[in-house]
Amino acid sequence: MNLKIILFISLFITNIFAVNFNPNHLSKKDIETLKLIKKQGKKHGLSYSLMAIAIKESSIGKYLVNVDSRDFGLYQANIKTVISRHKVKDTSWNRNRYAMRLISDFKFATKNAIAELTYWRKIHNNDWRKVWSSYNGGWKYNSKRARKYSRDIATIIRRLKQVEV
User: Fold this and answer.
1) Pick from 3, 120, 148, 156: CA 20 to 30 A from residue 45's CA?
2) Stretch (H or E) spanning 11
3) What is the span of the domain harbouring residue 123?
4) pTM for the predicted model, two decimal places
């Protein structure tokens, strides 16, 4: 019981303070992961967005499961969206199977994040503030929470560009 409370609080604190990201405090493993993300996103023009989302959403892979929101993986993809994107029946079995892939398969998780960002990028005509807002809030991209999320992503990107990753 106490472990669940500690885990919940640490997840909450991580998301609140993700904007306080300091690129000078990255571990060797964090830098390796960010380099992999950067490489995967480069051909789509999404390197920095993907890196910032991984920092904001999972602290670069430290927190891969959010049971409350049903978001999973490095980029905290919503399982309902992933199921829909892959055109599979929404069953408990498929939700668990795809959640495990988001958690354990870097390329699968990254492809899903790229697909999500690409979708919103097209919808919003490359307006990155709206793209990032929609990544978090979907069609409610003008909500206060989604707009704050977008500002946080922009801040993280600015800080990432100050160091060589």
Assistant:
1) 148
2) helix 2-17
3) 2-61+105-160
4) 0.88
